[in-house]
Automatic annotation (TrEMBL):
Name of the protein in its database record: Signal recognition particle protein
Compartments, as annotated in UniProt: Cell inner membrane; Cytoplasm
Subunit structure of this chain's protein: Part of the signal recognition particle protein translocation system, which is composed of SRP and FtsY. SRP is a ribonucleoprotein composed of Ffh and a 4.5S RNA molecule.
Primary localisation category: membrane
Membrane topology: Peripheral membrane protein
Sites where the protein binds GTP: 105-112, 188-192, 246-249
The entry's keywords: Coiled coil, Cytoplasm, GTP-binding, Hydrolase, Nucleotide-binding, Ribonucleoprotein, RNA-binding, Signal recognition particle
Length: 442
């Protein structure tokens, strides 16, 4: 979530059941976060109501704060809304060949690109014979564009015949599909920069002529609020069976997904993740939910913590970090926990902004075996040395190394790592006051 949200959540430190005050404080901020992610206002309101109901009276898990837990509830509700019911993402109703898939949407939303991506996917994954046809009669270049993509991906396109109307082309495509034994006909309709009557009338006529099995609305995932009115209009007039969100590789927050889903009740089937022909994926509700909340995988971290970290220990550590204290005992406790949580990589991978560090660790070959070795070194230290690593001069290093059955340079490495971790923990502790572990480590 936004920094503001994590800040607000940090204030909630109560124990026991989630109180109404806890929930409403958190939800006020969640609402702001949703709006910042371009979710439309009525949709955000409706969603918050759902979460309120889901959160009432839930018990606070010991090792996480109520704020974190509300985030988890928000996340779970988001996934529920985004996923809908009984829908398998990426499935299309295209039995009974030739089945028509009509692609609709505004100009520039990514219709033509998505048509080709989807054709490629159907061909490669489902072994379908696909025929694509461009109905964009106003822009000859658009027809050419689809033909070029067709050649590139090895999918047939209907030969271009100048002077035909969209309906005539659609009819010809159907005939051709019947004759040629195609499984799927994909119709790439024309778009406009904004919704107008002429566009809608044309798409309606094509729909009535071809009776598509799937009518997929292609929407630019970066458009946010506008996506809602686009979806309302197309669904109201044409009747869509699903959506494709494009440009989800960009840095939009993906709020459009929630709005579209809530407004039309229609599933999001695919997301576009780039300009390349392979950059199409079935829709993953969890990923988009995480993105709307903007918290990296903090939710799954909370989940793991719920399962595994003892509350008292976690709290004790956080307090120490906040005071800037981090000795060898703390380091050992961290190592022990790391082993529990699936190793260093597992943890680092979950924290936003930790990718770089995780990669460094990876390159240095830092794995569980090495974590165990570090623990052995710490165990060879005296109490005083653990409390005050600065005591570790040459003779002590030699003794500790011998005790752990390792070299002095291994001890040096551990000491260096301790220093780095102590710095990191100090930063984390500071952030713990301001917010969750967000951002500052990147
Ligand atoms: P149309 O007017 O709706 O047919 O839109 P096009 O398919 O011609 O796409 C317009 C532009 O958006 C092209 O430059 C595409 O390469 C680009 N585009 C389409 N889908 C995506 C996507 O998922 N990610 C990115 N980054 N670009 C996309
Ligand atoms: Mg186009």
């Amino acid at each position: 979530l936004s920094d503001r949200l994590s800040g607000a959540l940090e204030k909630l430190t109560g124990k026991g059941a989630l109180t109404e005050a806890d929930i409403s404080t958190a939800l006020r901020e969640v609402r702001v976060a949703l709006l910042e992610a371009d979710v439309s206002l009525p949709v955000a309101r409706g969603f918050i109501k759902r979460v309120e109901e889901a959160a009432q009276g839930r018990h606070v898990v010991k090792s996480v704060t109520p704020g974190q837990q509300v985030v988890k509830i928000v996340h779970d509700e988001l996934v529920k809304v985004l996923a809908g019911e009984d829908e398998e993402p990426g499935r299309l109703r295209i039995d009974n060949p030739p089945a028509t898939i009509m692609m609709v949407g505004l100009q520039g939303s990514g219709k033509t690109t998505t048509t080709a991506k989807l054709a490629k996917r159907l061909k490669e994954r489902e072994g379908k014979r696909v025929l694509m046809a461009s109905l964009d009669t106003r822009r000859p270049a658009a027809m050419e564009q689809l033909a070029v993509l067709g050649t590139q991906i090895g999918v047939d396109t209907l030969p271009i015949q100048p002077g035909q109307t969209a309906v005539q082309i659609a009819k010809r495509a159907k005939t051709q599909a019947n004759l040629g034994g195609y499984d799927v006909v994909m119709l790439d309709t024309a778009g406009r920069l904004s919704i107008d009557d002429e566009l809608m009338a044309e798409v309606e006529a094509v729909r009535d002529e071809t009776r598509p099995r799937e009518t997929l609305l292609v929407v630019d995932g970066l458009t946010g609020q506008d996506a809602v009115s686009t979806a309302e209009n197309f669904d109201g007039r044409i009747g869509i069976t699903g959506c494709v969100l494009t440009r989800m590789d960009g840095d939009g927050r993906g709020g459009a997904a929630l709005s579209m889903r809530a407004v039309t009740g229609k599933p999001i089937k695919f997301v576009g993740l780039g300009e390349k022909m392979d950059a199409l994926e079935e829709f993953h509700p969890e990923r988009v939910a995480g993105r709307i909340l903007g918290m990296g995988d903090i939710v799954s971290l909370v989940e793991k913590a719920q399962e595994q970290i003892e509350a008292a220990e976690a709290e004790r550590m956080m307090k120490r970090f906040q005071k800037g204290r981090f000795d060898m005992n703390d380091m050992k406790a961290q190592f022990d926990q790391m082993l529990k949580l699936g190793g260093m990589q597992g943890i680092m991978g979950m924290l936003p902004g930790m990718g770089k560090l995780s990669k460094q660790l990876d390159e240095s070959g830092f794995d569980d075996r090495i974590i165990r070795r570090q623990i052995a070194i710490i165990q060879s230290m005296t109490k005083a040395e653990r409390k005050n690593p600065d005591l570790m001069q040459a003779s002590r290093k030699k003794r500790v190394a011998a005790g752990a059955g390792l070299e002095v340079q291994d001890v040096n490495k551990l000491i260096k790592m301790h220093r780095q971790m102590a710095d990191m923990m100090k930063k984390m502790g500071k952030m713990g006051k301001k917010g969750l572990m967000r951002g500052a480590l990147s």
